[in-house]
Amino acid sequence: MADNDGPDQYGVVLYYKYTPIPDVDQLFSFYDSNCNSLGLLGRVRLAPDGVNVTIGGKLSLLEKHIAAVKSNSLFEGTDFKLASCHHPLNDQVAKECGFTSLSIRVVKELVTFSPHPLLKSPEISNAGTHLSAVEFHSVLQSAGPLLEKENPSNHKKLVLLDARNLYETRIGKFKTPNVETLDPGIRQYSDLPSWIDDNSERFRGNRVLMYCTGGIRCEMASAYIRSKGAGFENVFQLFGGIQRYLEQFPDGGFFKGKNFVFDHRISVGSSDANIMGACLLCGSSFDDYSSRCRCNHCRMLVLVCDSCQKKDALYVCELCQKHGKGYGSIPLIENDESQVITQPIKLKTVPSDDTTLSPQIHSRHGKVPSLPENSESCACTGFGRMPLVLKEELHH
């Protein structure tokens, strides 16, 4: 947070709410009128089953927005995450994160949980039990000693699942003694269901504790795990996500590194200055995504330190390297050990204007044809045409 918390201080507010929306057009009109009158910029996503919002402006005006939203009974119990911060200092980052305009769109689903449009999403009503930051911390704190005392034949152990993408977990994650944090290492959230399917035996019969940035991704993912039936009932999630946890434990608690966020702040850390990330090329400690370096194949954000950054350089992320894509001699960072790929492979890029697989997004003024659904996040290239592989969500 910035030091000045006065009424003219800039800030951001993040919130989501899963609830049936009886009149989406009416809610669209409310956000259009309210946000424009208050001069708020950012992204508002409306769906038949709820809303997902990340907007910025003066703190005093954001508070007025929150008050107006709270007056609608649909938003009862909503967790509004309001934080003071610096005004966007980097135009490129501000544009990519949607903080140079107000974007209000009606979408089919708040987060794209599956790449297959015909696959029905799980019922949110079946989501895992919410744990407050204090409760979440307490469970982790007591888990180690409890697991040490457990009989090896007792399979009801604690499994900690990170529901975020690889570029987020690179710079920060929960690390608890004697409790393994499962990091799916996925490029985008819609890859998570298949990873859960492939690893379902790691959850069966165990207590599953999961977390994400602000909570919204855990809602859908926890419901998906529970939908598998017997043996998958004990699923819990961190209410308010890492953001609320760091507010409650400013020293970081069991969370190490920085929390990647989908706005111009890029990441938010604790008072612990330890760096968890590493440069893709030289392996030195580094966790700053402000340079917006990306994989040449899939456009996922990659960490490249200032010393290794070169004009017109080509980068290949860890995931693309694992799938045999490379260029020249590029270090492969895997399990904190550097390996080198020396065989040159011809680069293949995804056409940026190919939208044949993209679902349609509707705005109040008609169809917007060239955007993948829920695509505007800090990991996209703006609000124009973009590679299909960047089906990123507005995450909290």
UniProtKB/TrEMBL annotation:
Highest taxon listed in the record's lineage: Eukaryota
SUPFAM superfamilies reported in the protein's UniProt record: Rhodanese/Cell cycle control phosphatase
Biased composition (Polar residues): 352-361
Renumbered residue ranges of the record's region Disordered: 351-370
Pfam families associated with the record: Rhodanese_C, UPF0176_N
Transmembrane annotation, as ranges: none
InterPro entries for the chain: Rhodanese-like_dom (IPR001763), Rhodanese-like_dom_sf (IPR036873), Rhodanese_C (IPR022111), TrhO (IPR020936), TRHO_N (IPR040503)
Domain Rhodanese: 154-254
Protein name as annotated: Rhodanese domain-containing protein
Organism: Vitis vinifera (Grape)
